[in-house]
Write a structure and sequence with these properties.
Blueprint: H1 3-8, H2 14-23, E1 49-55, H3 61-73, E2 78-82, H4 93-104, H5 109-122, E3 128-131, H6 134-140, H7 142-152, E4 156-158, H8 168-176, E5 180-182, E6 184-185, H9 191-199, E7 205-208, H10 222-235, E8 241-244, H11 250-259, E9 263-266, H12 268-276, H13 284-303
Parallel strand pairs: 1-2, 1-9, 2-3, 3-4, 4-5, 6-7, 7-8, 8-9
Helix pairs in contact: 3-5, 3-13, 5-7, 6-7, 10-11, 12-13
Length: about 300
């Protein structure tokens, strides 16, 4: 599949439109994924996108919906919903625990998509991407599960364990359904492989900021900035770059944006806030405190996206 075929099929995808709208603000006509160049250079635009994460069904279904609402109302541009999986190889301890709790509460993939469907009803225009693992799609059948995801309101998939070399069936089905395919690249991805991954990505290219799994970091090394800059140089304006793993405060956001990121992904830091206010009991006061903390955190992260 060529990039143009895939890109043309995604013109009405909410995720694609979100990035195109952002980069076309200063131009009289919209920039589309099929045009060249597709995006304005990072240095000349003022706003960047914030992608925030929640685990479907953690700590419970109602709270998941409330958390997502709080994040969107506080500035999150895109929502990443984790579909719980028993062996989440790319997730660190914080997200692993949240996923395990959701699974113990009976959050199977179909129930997770029902949660997404309710969120979509409340927020019809906010891009929502599903983060999960290939086995869920294999087990249900690629076409069947992706159609169901599309119907629920999903705009694309992040599958950390999907090798791009074996992704033809997945990409073809996603393109047919107007769903974005978001592949990951890491610091040790060589240039040739990076170009190949970028050529099969749509929506955005997910840059893993560090080696290892997700989690909370205190600082990032200069080598991370160099890696982001080099990736941006290689892929140019062909695809937006979103950086994730370890981003947990406004200074991290600014660090990644200054290095060339078009968007930042925040996950473990949000789940960690929820964890501190979740003890298994129905305590409305604690929940309100937690929601307030999330709103303040997301708002501050979004402010750092505007430079």
């Amino acid at each position: 599949m060529t990039r143009n075929i895939q890109s043309n099929s995604l013109q009405t995808n909410r995720l694609v439109k979100k990035f195109c709208e952002l980069y076309s603000k200063s131009q009289s006509s919209s920039i589309t994924y099929a045009s060249s160049p597709r995006f304005k250079p990072s240095a000349v635009r003022k706003e960047h996108l914030l992608i925030c994460y929640a685990v479907a069904g953690y700590p419970d279904i109602k709270t998941t919906k409330e958390i997502v609402s709080a994040m969107i109302e506080s500035g999150a541009d895109i929502i990443e919903i984790g579909l719980p999986f028993s062996d989440p190889i790319a997730d660190g301890p914080i997200i692993q625990e949240a996923s395990f709790i959701a699974l113990t509460h009976g959050i199977i993939p179909d129930k997770a998509l029902e949660i997404v469907k309710d969120i979509r009803k409340e927020f019809p225009n906010t891009p929502i991407v599903a983060m999960t693992y290939s086995n869920i799609l294999y087990k249900a059948g690629f076409s069947k599960f992706m159609r169901k995801a599309k119907k629920s309101g999903i705009d694309g998939f992040i599958l950390p364990d999907m090798p791009f070399e074996e992704s033809d069936k997945y990409i073809n089905e996603a393109s047919r359904l107007n769903l974005a395919t978001i592949f990951l690249a890491s610091p040790n991805t060589n240039e040739e492989r990076l170009r190949s991954i970028a050529s099969r990505s749509s929506g955005f290219l997910y840059l893993v900021s560090v080696y290892g799994t997700t989690g909370i970091r205190k600082t990032f090394e200069d080598s991370t900035a160099k890696y982001v800059k080099n990736t941006k140089k290689i892929v140019g304006s062909s695809i937006p770059i979103a950086v994730g793993f370890g981003i947990s405060n406004p200074s991290h956001v600014k660090f990644m944006i200054n290095a060339g990121a078009d968007a930042v992904i925040v996950a473990s830091a949000i789940i960690n806030i929820m964890k501190h206010y979740t003890d298994g009991r129905d305590n409305n006061k604690k929940k309100e405190e937690m929601l307030k903390k999330v709103r303040i955190f997301v708002s501050n992260m979004k402010k750092s996206c505007i430079q």
